[in-house]
Amino acid sequence: MKGIILLVLGIGLLHTASAVTHSLKYFYTASSEVPNFPEFVVVGMVDGVQMVHYDSNSQRMVPRQDWMNKAAETLPQYWESQTGILKGTQQTYKASIDIVKQRFNQSGGVHTFQNMYGCEWDDDTGATEGFFQYGYDGEDFLALDLKTKKWIAPTPQAVITKHKWDSNTANEERRKHYLTQECIEWLKKYLDYGKSTLMRTVPPSVFLLQKTPTSPVTCHATGFYPSDVMVSWQKDGQDHHEDVEYGETLPNDDGTFQKSIHLTMTPEDRKNNKYQCVVQVKGIKEDFIGVPPDQDAANVVPIIGGVVALLLVVVVVVVGVVIWKKRSKKGFVPASTSDTDSDNSGGVKKI
């Protein structure tokens, strides 16, 4: 059959609902010689939803959610003060990326220097976690160990900065207080301000896609919220990981998320075994089940490739977040008497 086969799946089994881990994160990205990209970008996110944005082109910190304006009303001149802070931070990061390039004996070329920081809170157990790290050209550069309040330097070029910052114990104590106390307080405030958006649950639409009878079967879940999702394949009722390729959870332009997982199997495997795709979204009790389409079945719907391309494309990519290619749930950057005060986080200083 020409084109791509599409099957929309419904609700299947039930599973026990689990608590959601909420997060407040900031991403600071300095870059050099990246075409059509600002030299400095700041993105603030709550539960994976972008709430604030700043870049060196506009030189303004602006809200990305309506409820963020409500939160800012509690702080006089919030946007003006944050814009002023980030203008100064922009200059610090410009100097820092130049210093790091020198340490790697680099001059020109495309380079990125990022700082990620923030905190997480489990609304069921009350457990919290803070994180603060730097990356250069997509690789880890520095990471803070909150227990020892010492920096970890995975590369020789970062050792000089590690020794410099480790000696400033007062600054690291302030940073730890921010990450473990103030950041959690701000996270809870933002969750309250944006609860109609951030505390909602939206079930996924699940599609099974296959170009030909011998090509991989893609299970594509989209439109779900929150972003905590488990997408997996089962074979004869058992978890199946062989010949499976896992995609990342990506944002849609409407604030929901999407994720794909690909399974390679022969027509004979599909004939002799029962495969199914299982999608579980935190906070939603139902499991969403999909079974690979049978090319000979009357209910299989052929669609043109362009339609599937729209389903699979990342509609929106948060600028500054995806440059750091190494996957990690940890990470982040500066803060003020607001949650992004550089004095509180201790993040704004030269490398």
TrEMBL record:
Q: Could you give one GO CC term from the UniProt record?
A: external side of plasma membrane
The UniProt keyword set, sorted, is: Glycoprotein, Membrane, Signal, Transmembrane, Transmembrane helix
Q: Where is the signal peptide?
A: 1-19
Q: Which Gene3D superfamilies match?
A: Immunoglobulins, MHC class I-like antigen recognition-like
UniProt cross-references to CDD domains, sorted A to Z: IgC1_MHC_I_alpha3
Every copy of the Ig-like domain together lies at 204-280
Which Pfam family, giving just one, matches this sequence? MHC_I
Q: Which residues cross the membrane?
A: 303-324
Q: Is the keyword Oxidoreductase assigned to this protein?
A: no
Q: Which GO terms describe its biological process?
A: immune response
Annotated region Disordered: where?
332-351
InterPro entries given for it?
Ig-like_dom, Ig-like_dom_sf, Ig-like_fold, Ig_C1-set, MHC_class-I_related, MHC_I-like_Ag-recog, MHC_I-like_Ag-recog_sf, MHC_I/II-like_Ag-recog
Q: Which family does it belong to?
A: Belongs to the MHC class I family.
What is the protein name given in its UniProt record?
Answer: MHC class I
- Species whose genome carries this gene: Oncorhynchus mykiss (Rainbow trout)
Quote the gene name from the UniProt entry.
Answer: OnmyUAA-OSU
